[in-house]
Specification:
single chain; about 160 residues; about 15% strand; globular
Length: about 160
């Protein structure tokens, strides 16, 4: 898979900001649902979000990943129900089987959560600029503060 800028989006407006930035820059985007959110959101929510974004931004290169945490049954169900991508952070043995299912169905399987910009931590007015900066700085994506999901500030600043 091409290096994609990853974004954590909790709602349509946050996802829209990321996809709009990606579309404007011609960059591939990965939208992640919140960590271990599969049971709370359901796969239909994710599919509807992806369909809406594709209607609004038909030329955008995006993948929307449904985070199943360590719940193999939910990841399996999501893949079979049509989720385009799942993030599963459970055991390697379970992941092995899920990788095979994802490949058979032509879906994307993520065994870890990539560094992602958490758009819920930003004001609606600042999301577009932050998303573009995130896309434009692939090297800086590894320096993400996992607590807030924003690029870390060097000590002393």
């Amino acid at each position: 898979m091409t290096e994609r800028a990853a974004f954590l989006a909790r709602d349509l407006d946050q996802a829209r900001a990321a996809v709009m930035a990606g579309a404007e820059l011609g960059a591939p985007i990965l939208i992640l649902t919140p960590e271990d959110s599969a049971a709370a959101l359901g796969v239909l929510w994710t599919q509807e979000l992806a369909a809406h974004l594709r209607r609004e931004f038909p030329g955008a290169d995006l993948i929307l990943a449904f985070d199943c945490g360590d719940r193999a049954a939910l990841a399996h169900e999501a893949l079979r129900a049509g989720a385009e991508a799942v993030c599963f952070t459970g055991s390697e043995a379970q992941a092995h089987g899920l990788v095979a299912i994802a490949a058979e169905l032509g879906r994307t399987f993520l065994p870890t959560r990539p560094p992602a910009l958490d758009l819920s931590r930003l004001s609606p007015k600042g999301r577009a600029a932050a998303a573009k900066a995130w896309i434009g700085n692939p090297a800086g994506r590894a320096d993400v503060d996992p607590v807030v999901g924003l690029p870390g500030t060097p000590p002393g600043h």
